[in-house]
Amino acid sequence: MSLKLKVDGKEIPLNEFVEKFMNGSITGALSSLHGINENWKKIEIEIQK
Q1: pLDDT per residue over 10-43, tens digit each?
Q2: Which of 18, 29, 41, 45 is most buried (CB neighbours < 10 A)?
Q3: CA-CA distance, 44 to 3, in Å (whole number)?
């Protein structure tokens, strides 16, 4: 799995620990939701304030 973080269009480099942590947190939370296919290919999350 790979993870990219962009803030205002600028890609923010992630170290291995943060990438693994965020991957695990996001995929773990989403796997508990109904309607999420376990064979997903791509997850996109957009947060705006």
Answers
A1: 999 999 999 999 999 999 999 899 999 888 899 9
A2: 18
A3: 10
E strands in 1-49: 5-7, 10-12
Distances (CA, A) of 5 to 8, 11, 30, 37, 39: 10, 6, 18, 23, 22
As beta bridge partners, residue 7 has: 10
Please determine, for residue 1, whether its predicted confidence score (pLDDT) is greater than 90. Answer: no
CB under 8 Å to 43, separation ≥6 — which residues?
26, 27, 30
Q: Residue 27 corresponds to which amino acid?
A: T
Helix (H, G, I), strand (E, B) or coil at 47: coil
Tokens for 35, please give them.
């309607």
